[in-house]
Amino acid sequence: MDIFAKLGIDWRLLIAQAVNFAILLFVLHRFAYKPMLAFLAERTERIEKGLQDAEAATVKLASLEEKEKEVLKAAREEARALIAKTEESAKKRDAERQKETEAKIATLLIEAEGKIQEERAKSMRDAKEELGSLVLAAVEKVIKEKMDPEKEKALIEKVLG
Q1: Range of the domain at 139
Q2: Each residue's pLDDT tens digit, 86-112
Q3: How many domains, in total, are found in the chain?
Q4: How far, in Å, CA of 28 to CA of 90, rounded?
Q5: What is the Cα–Cα distance from 99 to 101, expressed in whole angstroms?
Q6: What digits encode the pLDDT tens for the residues 24-82?
Q7: CA pair distance 9, 15, nearest whole angstrom
Q8: How far apart are CA 159 and CA 161, in angstroms?
Q9: By the 8 A CB rule, do 4 and 10 touch?
Q10: CA 98 from centre of chain
C-alpha cells in the first residue's frame, strides 16, 4: 500500500470512491438505465407496431382501391346496360308510336275515302236528279205536255239506268 502512498493516493479514499461508484452504478442501473432501456424497448415496439400498422393500412388501402375500381367498373357496366336498355325501350316506344300513328293515318284515310265515296255518290245522285230534271224539262218543252211524277221518275230511271 506504500505504492499508493508514494503516488499520493489514499487507499481508504480510493476504496470509498470505488464503493460510492458501485452504489452510484447500482442506483443508476436500477433507477435510470433499466427504465430507460424499458422505455426505449417500448418505444421501439410502438414504432415497429406503427410501421406494421402503416404497412397493413397500405395493403388495406390498395385492396380498397382495387375494390373501388371493381365497383366503379361494375357501376359503369351497369350504367351502360341501363342506357342501352333505355335506348332500346325508347326505340320500341317510338316504333309503337309510329305504328299507332300509321294506323291512325290509315284509319283516317279509309274514313276520308269513305266520305269521298259518299260525297261522290251523293254528287252523282244529285247530278242524276238534276240531269233528269233538265232532261225532263227539255222533253216537256219538246212534247209540250206535262207528265205526272211517277212517269217522270220511271223515265228518268230508264234514261239513267
Answers
A1: 2-160
A2: 999 999 999 999 999 999 999 999 999
A3: 1
A4: 87
A5: 5
A6: 999 999 898 888 999 999 999 999 999 999 999 999 999 999 999 999 999 999 999 99
A7: 11
A8: 6
A9: yes
A10: 27
